[in-house]
Specification:
single chain, about 230 residues, alpha/beta, TIM Barrel, eight-stranded parallel sheet, 10 helices, about 40% helix
């Protein structure tokens, strides 16, 4: 099946549930992204800043780029002029830098707090208590150039369906609690990004509003790239 055919299958399924598809284009060539764009896809997710910056310069300007990988503070400045959403905010330090660079570009950058829900040491993310502490902090309250749109989480790799579902449900419970406590009047706090190719159906059932799917759309990754951020 072509990229367009793969996209059509997912879009038809997800749109019926009101879920947005983020096409994960990391390690894919720009022409593959353009093929997906020409098939109607506008939201793409990238993990590596250098690769994202290169693609953004080559591809149509109305693409909405999401940074979905671990982001170092010294790389924020490179994406601040154009990034649509940073899904992987995992510290107050990083959010402070995003706010600083957004101000320099006269922008407000949409962000998701990445929450640690997996039973794996290799995953990044805020603990539940850390997320609440961040939202309560005076530093966050003073920020004018970031907008927290919701939460993001990555389930444990190769876990049972039961464990994966429980991890997604825990994230939804945290989202609901944060919504009531800190964003009750803010309609923009409405996104839960969870679910990838192998587990997106479980995520949608648990309340995901945004899923990240890559290889099932584009096929096997066509280039190798460093995972350093």
């Amino acid at each position: 099946m072509s990229i367009a055919d793969n996209l059509s299958k997912y879009k038809t399924e997800l749109e019926a549930s009101g879920v947005q598809l983020v096409a994960v284009s990391k390690f894919q060539q720009a022409d593959a992204v353009l093929e997906a764009y020409n098939a109607g896809q506008r939201v793409f997710g990238e993990n590596i800043v250098q690769e994202l910056v290169e693609k953004q310069a080559q591809l149509p300007g109305d693409i909405r780029w999401h940074l979905i990988g671990h982001l170092q503070t010294n790389k924020v400045k490179y994406i601040a002029p154009f990034i649509s959403m940073i899904e992987s905010v995992d510290s107050l330090k990083l959010l402070t830098e995003i706010n600083k660079q957004a101000a320099k570009n006269n922008r407000v950058i949409d962000c998701l707090l990445q929450i640690y829900i997996a039973d794996e040491d290799s995953k990044f993310g805020l603990g539940f208590d850390e997320a609440v502490e961040l939202l309560r902090s005076e530093e966050f309250q003073a920020m004018k150039h970031v907008r927290i749109r919701g939460l993001m989480g990555i389930a444990t790799n190769n876990a049972s369906e039961r464990q994966t579902s429980e991890e997604f449900k825990e994230l939804k419970v945290l989202f609901d609690g944060i919504k009531v406590s800190y964003f009750r009047k803010d309609e923009y706090f409405n996104e839960i990004s969870m679910g990838m190719s192998a587990d997106y159906k479980l995520a949608v059932t648990a309340g995901s509003t945004m899923v990240r799917i890559g290889s099932s759309i584009f096929g096997k990754r066509t280039t190798k790239a460093s995972t350093a951020q």
